[in-house]
Design brief:
heterodimer, A: alpha+beta, four-stranded mixed β-sheet, four-stranded antiparallel β-sheet, 12 helices, 47% helix, B: alpha+beta, 11 helices, 8 strands
Chain lengths: 389, 342
């Protein structure tokens, strides 16, 4: 056994750190935090120019053919730096799917621009009445000659206000079971008939509700076969779940430790010497280490040719649930001042703990809720009978 | 990164697994209660993989790494084998690391591997190692007595203390005949600290094995027990708890192995990792045993079903060292350094 990622990843990690020193400034991080838009087009383009949106891709696409351990190093460093990466994550999911299911013409149209970071993608699956039960969506696409006419509403279309396309799942057939009547489209967000309304969240992130009224797109924007949108989405979900590493919890833990070690109470004692503080930080460090190991295991399974389904679910479940619980412990640990927010000069840990608490809740929901992950673990991992839902 | 075992490790693990499957079914565990020790099993086990396998080859041992030992401990924990492998392996390595003063006791163990050796994870109080694991049967005991790391070599004494985990526990006088000081002062403290972290790591392995096996028992029961016309494992509130426990056990296994690996491959991180592994394996094993007992319903509470054997030990084994909350404080010391003197 070897628990190190390896020299190749270490070298890449150093490269990523140098890149971040040069291309990511405090103002960019602060702006993303202030606006709630966890994307910066200039930074996104810099990542694209670096070739890292296609880091794992084969050379024929201009990719760098990096292995899952190198990707883990890349993601680790972006997380630790607090880089705005929503656009990167969403674009990679869409591009990976396009690469696998789209026509050559479509690939030639979308991939070079997307992988260069010139354009950015958003996801349009969820609707007001369809969350985990995605297949129940009501947005429709009706064929009209060489065009499709889209009507409906999407919810949680994060980055739609800055992205160029929305990867939109629509119902194209009402006469078949719900999973079999769906089709995927890549809809240009500047199409007439699209309205984007901001939705503000408890975590400070801005997301959107998007409305589609007689939006017309040519058949060129249909990704995958008609009525096979569920299969297309399954491909995309695989990339949403796999390949994680360190998380927000690791960054905030480091910030909290640095703060506790350098801050003294009015009686002269160091904050880190308070038993309630040091024990909580020790327990959180343990949880973070387990989350890291579960994440790295998904990379290991992927690197050795497997599909990390159950392993990915275990990581997602554990990291999200433990981060949510630990963030609450950390806010408590800071006492009365724990409620102070970023911007207040006295906020402990510059308000990042208070922010982590608000942000953490969404991690148990997006990308497949904790309940969905538990079902996957129970049924595919433990072999328990399928539940009646 | 490589999370696979080597071919050699695979061979050892599967040999130990099939030996224990054959020789240590749960009726052997039950028969060992309340004494917590099976001399016949131990002596047969020592022919396969005695505790001196962890002693360096140049001293006559098997040269196994702490990771190799941890893998064996996972198997021992999964069948609750009433044998002193964890404590004996730690004692042997502590004697090997002590040089000359430890030679005589080590030579005895190398010559007769089934001689019971043990290690006291808790510092002795007033010359007595209290609640010493395998104290009722150990000839050789390594312990920290005040400022001294000592080995006592003599006939076992002390009555078995009735206890939750049916563990072999007794008090042991460290100041009588057969006492040899292995080291004192800072050297003793460092030697004891290292041995304790090895003990934490190997006990983590045993707890991971226990937790995984308890979970398997619970899952199997949930697949077969039918209520309201369906297997209870198809109900989400049952499946949810089992999925959570499975995740904890997988995490604990990775962490225990990482800690054992770090003993030689990442020495600076070994102490904090050993503490983390111990704390997390404690949590995972207890959660798994608790959930698995609970899904059995009323039957889980009866002595007939095996899950109670796991449930009691999951709570008891970590207490060989003491309150796990104190473990979090010790981890904090390893991570942040000691509390500043005022």
């Amino acid at each position: 056994m070897d628990f190190r990622l390896g020299p190749k990843s270490d070298a890449f990690r150093a490269e990523v750190r140098d890149f971040l020193d040069e291309h990511l400034d405090d103002e960019t991080i602060e702006r993303a935090h202030r606006t709630g838009t966890n994307h910066d087009q200039e930074f996104h383009r810099a990542i694209g120019r670096q070739g890292w949106l296609a880091a794992t891709w084969p050379a024929e696409y201009g990719g760098q053919e990096r292995d899952p351990f190198e990707m883990t190093a890349l993601r680790d460093e972006l997380r630790l730096a607090g880089a705005p990466t929503d656009g990167m994550g969403l674009s990679v999911i869409v591009c990976q799917t396009i690469r696998r299911v789209a026509t050559e013409e479509q690939k030639a149209d979308f991939l070079p621009r997307a992988l260069a970071g010139e354009i950015c993608m958003s996801l349009g699956y969820s609707e007001p009445d369809s969350g985990s039960d995605v297949a129940s969506i009501k947005t429709t696409a009706v064929r009209d000659g060489d065009e499709w006419v889209i009507n409906g509403q999407k919810m949680f279309t994060t980055l739609a206000h800055v992205a160029d396309y929305v990867f939109l799942l629509a119902r194209t057939n009402h006469d078949v079971p719900k999973h079999k009547g769906l089709t995927m489209f890549l809809v240009p967000l500047d199409s007439p008939g699209i309205e984007i309304h901001p939705v503000h969240t408890v975590g400070g992130e801005r997301t959107n509700a998007t409305f589609y009224t007689d939006v017309r797109v040519s058949d060129h924007y249909r990704i995958g076969e008609v009525d096979r949108g569920w299969d297309v989405m399954t491909v995309a979900l695989t990339f949403e779940r796999g390949g994680f590493g360190l998380s927000e919890a690791d960054r905030v833990w480091e910030q909290a430790v640095a703060w506790a070690e350098s801050t003294r109470r009015p009686d002269g004692t160091r904050v880190i010497d308070d038993p309630y503080v040091r024990e909580r930080l020790a327990v959180m460090r343990t949880n973070n280490e387990v989350a890291r190991l579960l994440a790295y295991r998904t990379s290991f399974v992927a690197a050795t040719g497997g599909m990390p389904g159950v392993e990915g679910s275990m990581h997602k479940l554990f990291y999200a649930e433990s981060m949510t619980a630990d963030a609450a412990e950390l806010v408590d640990m800071l006492g009365a001042e724990g409620v102070l927010q970023r911007g207040d000069g006295e906020a402990p840990v510059d308000g990042w703990v208070e922010h982590l608490f608000r942000h953490a809740a969404v991690t148990t929901i997006y990308g497949g809720t904790s309940e969905m992950q538990r079902s996957i673990i129970a049924e595919r991992g433990l072999g328990l009978p399928r539940s009646g839902r | 990164m490589d999370l696979n075992l080597t071919d050699e490790q695979h061979e050892v693990v599967s040999a130990v697994r099939s030996f224990l499957a054959d020789r240590c079914p749960t009726d052997v565990v039950r028969a060992s209660e309340p004494d917590g020790y099976d001399a016949v099993l131990w002596s047969a086990f020592c022919e396969l993989a005695g505790p001196t396998i962890g002693v360096p080859e140049k001293l006559g041992g098997g040269g196994a790494s702490l990771l190799d030992l941890e893998l064996v401990c996972e198997q021992i924990g999964s069948v609750l084998a009433p044998v002193p492998f964890v404590e004996a392996a730690v004692a042997c390595r502590a004697l090997a690391a002590s040089g000359d003063p430890g030679t005589r006791a080590l030579d005895r163990l190398l010559a007769e591997p089934a001689t019971v050796a043990t290690f006291a994870p808790r510092r002795a109080a007033g010359g007595t190692a209290t609640l010493l694991p395998f104290g009722p049967v150990a000839r050789v005991a390594v312990a920290m007595d005040g400022d001294e790391l000592v080995v006592v070599d003599g006939d076992a004494d002390g009555a078995v203390r009735a206890n939750l985990g049916s563990s072999s526990l007794a008090d042991r006088d460290l100041r009588g005949a057969g006492r040899t000081v292995l080291a004192d002062g800072d050297i003793a403290r460092a030697g004891f600290g290292l041995a304790l972290d090895e003990w934490r790591t190997l006990t983590s392995g045993a707890l991971v094995g226990l937790g995984g096996a308890a979970l398997d028992i619970g899952v199997e029961y949930a697949k077969n027990r039918v209520q309201f016309g369906a297997p209870i494992g198809s109900y989400q509130s049952i499946a949810r708890d089992l999925a959570d426990a499975a995740t904890l056990v997988d995490g604990a296994r990775l962490l225990a192995r990482e800690a054992a690996w770090a003993r030689t491959e990442d020495e600076e991180q070994f102490a904090p990792l050993a503490s983390m592994a111990f704390g997390f394996a404690t949590r995972a094993a207890r959660r798994a045993a608790n959930v698995a007992l609970h899904v059995h319903g009323g039957y889980g509470f009866t002595l007939e079903y095996d899950i109670q054997l796991y449930y009691r030990r999951a709570q008891a084994w970590p207490l060989r060292l003491g309150d796990p909350r104190r473990g979090a404080a010790e981890l904090a010391d390893a991570l942040f350094g000691p509390v500043e003197a005022r």
